[in-house]
């Protein structure tokens, strides 16, 4: 007898779209056993359709199922369904399957200047409606889909790619999954709004993400459908450094300083002499139309692989080379000859914008001409544009050390006449370079913060005309063995000018030392005003102080003339810092012990210069809390312990993130001229919490 059951498609469809169509009711037509099956032609099928009653088969007593045909739902009088009906059903199912696929119709990056992304990421000052965001911070994307998104059955992820050969292992190809909860320091996306076919995503990026230009692809699929759909956004995403993000290496925690060193597009650059300081207004113009594109072009033109653009130290080092055209067809050609007939005189420039646009529009033809203040102005523009806090800095009486002696040397003959071919060192009336702000994870703690970089081509560094970044703290303390190019910058600001006279045997004898010849009135524009700020104290200790002299002599020992200054007669005094138990607790006075040992059989005297500074966990020093001097007198073979106490009231409003402090000690032993030093980092522990 005829029967009904639920069935899937024919066997030819199984495996192509498994489970994607709703069940179909089928009717079983019973044929007589042993009946010869006739091949039906088109005419017979047409006749059977017109008059089915005349074409009924004769029944038999043996009921055996012979075949299954797709038919319409059963009617009171069953009617066999002709062949074309089968094709119609299959076409309908294919269309139904296509409609079930999830696909993206459009993507809105919410990138206009008035949208949420640009405002929250502090990029609304950039011209145009490009998607410009900062790393380490969430951003929003809206999508229109072909149907409502189902969290149970649908899948969606984002692809971001940068560079010519994106690789997941290099961080240049990023696959961003959908998650239920966003976590810091990873690429993730979460649906935060859904309204019909429209969804809004919140996307998180790590603070170490590669900066640059990204292409966006959205991939969607359905659990019941093997095939996936992709949608390429017609807009790119520009990723920048983020000085507002605590986890970013360029984080700057003062909002007024961020406004000055990142967002301010007008500044002042100082020139002249130390007694006649002049100032010129400079249009950095980092937000002007075409400048961001030019900065991206400079990054692309450099030899730096895209995977290296996540490291701020690496980026500024490459840029210090790319701003000058000396050896890599960079932005600007230097010219100190006085003949500028085939270009623009350096003194005629007052803005970085025209120079950068010209370089970009000419596909990388260096612009003529520039001198130190123009190189510095362009560097400030590019760094601020990319999100790295930066400023132009002028050093008056700036030394140029050509032989890494860490001194400015003047050679005289037996008659006290200058020996011109030996006198390659020089002192400029002024020289302009840049400071940029960043953590230095590649250096010991305490060397983050302001770093000096110089784009003016003076000397090569690792075979290329570039300079820096060199830590201010390393420069000030004479730690010239710390990278990058610290010896050169140290000599610019704190080298002694030493006069040498030739001896009859062709050797030279030191006849005079000028200790205050270089590094005067180091200047930059003040935060929030057009006043000049003197930042000499950031580059060197007070001229003539014992700390400054220790720094000069320490640096000299790592130069090409290590015996310029007298060496210590003995190395027999040592200093160390000890802490009791697990160290000081927050909320109480911080107490440490300073132990000084005399290993000689004679008495020793010294004065320890002590200073303690607040430090971020990244190694950046926020500021000095206290300075003091500790006189020390030691008998032969004596060891003394001094209690060092930092009262709670002095640090209670100064601490940051992990409550770290750095104590620096230095001094000179009077009897032997030995330099003693120690640097200790410690953290104030939070009080124990006991729950009863």
Automatic annotation (TrEMBL):
The keyword Transcription does not apply. It catalyses: L-glutaminyl-[protein] + L-lysyl-[protein] = [protein]-L-lysyl-N(6)-5-L-glutamyl-[protein] + NH4(+). It comes from the Eukaryota. It is an enzyme of class 2 (transferase). Belongs to the transglutaminase superfamily. Transglutaminase family. Interacts with PLAAT4. This is Protein-glutamine gamma-glutamyltransferase K. It comes from Notothenia coriiceps (black rockcod).
